[in-house]
Amino acid sequence: MKRDFVEFHGLTGRRSYNFKESREYLGGLAKKVQELAKDEANWTAEKRAQWDRLNSEYDDLLAEIETEEKRFQTKCKAGEKEFLAEQRKRPDWEFIDGKNPWRAMTCDEELFDERGRTQRALRPDESLTEALSCRDESSADFERAGLTLGKFIRATIVGARSEVERRALSEGTDSAGGYAVPTLLAAQTIDALRSKTVCLAAGAEIIPLFSDTNDFAKLATDAAPTWRAENAAVNVDDPTFSRVQFKPFTLAVLIRASRELLEDSPNVDQMIRTSLANSFSVELDRVCLVGAGTTEPLGLFGMANVTEVDMGTNGAALSGWDNLVTAVGALEDANVMVPSDAAIVMAPRTKTAFGAMKDSNGAYLTPPAALAGMRFLATTGVPIDQTQGGASDASSIFLGDWSQLKIGIRTQMRIEVLRERFADNYQYGILCALRADVQCFHEESMCRIIGVIPA
């Protein structure tokens, strides 16, 4: 859909938006939709067709704008001074938050294996969506057309509204009657998870998985160097390598929504994406930290070689910063360099207890030098009903080098529409499933404090 506010810049070979005019046009569409809605009781067939057309155009344009805004902010490469100087001369040049972050689009070759697949953990500044659309022509086509996971899900329910949606549904239909989500759309969900999952905010990394079993090597023990005399032979000592194997478990969520909402709402796409990201992220946090390792991944609480600080036989309440300082010391004893801005992850109850600690004069306690600069993060993924001796209300705290914790996620997702189960309430059920596993490449780099009970 071409409009006069979308221009072509030959310098980059890409379209560049005037975001202000795009948003103004979008606002005009929203007003038209709202005006029509006021008289819904008296709609004619023509009015209904107009409603459908405006809603479809609104959804398409919103996805298009979001895609271009994200591209504007993230597809960047430092040092494009000539390009920036040229673009600043243009009257329609846009800035975001007072800054100009545009840089030319590039592909990170090192991110992929010989088959064009991502085979290493993504850095915090890397987008899997960007990487796949950069390398995969089919994914790039979907992205350019503004196809999103929310639109794909809606299309599985009410039918395709565009050629690209029909193509995605055709390619994604599976033998079990559901839909395999196109890789790009699954990547969008993974990127959304990264922004909402506390363990990832702490520094854990995602590894995209492309098969049911994925093996990675890790260094178990280093080679030991020795001092030697002049002309003496160099001592030979080999490092020991071991294997980390990701075998994804299935994580599923069921979303219910009224048929009217899915068919008529212009922002249902965004709501579906938000709901999925929120529900998946909370559960990923939980299994990363306390997963049981049976029908779900094993979390840090159950890993044998994670450094441990015990609060006592029946647990104990926090009385200061000593337990955290002890944990940092235990990691350093294991030759772990704890980052100065390391994250300390805990239950909201525990974070509140730290924040409420006061000295004898009633002044709030500040962290000691050993903890200065560290980040205190809270997630409901840390339970507050663990058993510690006679206590049944214990909790845990986790800290260390979070980059050693890896979350492997399959780049395939599956969608199944439940049409009959909730029909009596005139609702659809949307069953979404992805597969993931959790591994720690160096367990000794992480520490858990167990047996934290309330005061």
Task: Give a quick precis of the structure.
This protein is an alpha+beta fold and 455 residues long. Helices cover 35% and strands 22% of the residues.
CATH architecture identity of the largest domain: Alpha-Beta Complex
CATH topology of the largest domain: phage-related protein like fold
**CATH first level of the largest domain: which class?**
Alpha Beta
- Please trace the helix and strand order, writing H or E for each element: EEHHHHHHHEHHEEEEHHEHEHEEEEEE
What's the N-to-C terminus distance? 61 Å
The amount of beta strand, in percent, is 15-25%
Low-confidence stretches: 1-17, 75-84, 87-116
Overall 3D form: globular
Tell me what the structure shows.
This protein is α+β, with helices and mostly antiparallel strands and 455 residues long. The chain folds into 2 domains: 1-106; 116-225 and 234-455, phage-related protein like fold. Helix content is 35%, strand content 22%. The chain is built from 13 helices and 15 strands. The protein has helices spanning 19-37, 45-74, 81-88, 128-135, 137-144, 149-158, 163-172, 183-196, 198-202, 259-264, 268-290, 322-333, 348-355; strands spanning 6-9, 14-17, 179-181, 205-209, 214-221, 240-246, 249-258, 307-310, 343-346, 375-378, 386-388, 391-400, 405-418, 427-440, 446-452. The strands form 4 sheets. Strands 8, 9, 10, 11, 12 and 15 form a 6-stranded mixed sheet that branches. Strands 3, 4, 7, 13 and 14 form a 5-stranded mixed sheet that branches. The protein is globular. The model is unreliable at 1-17, 75-84 and 87-116 (pLDDT under 50).
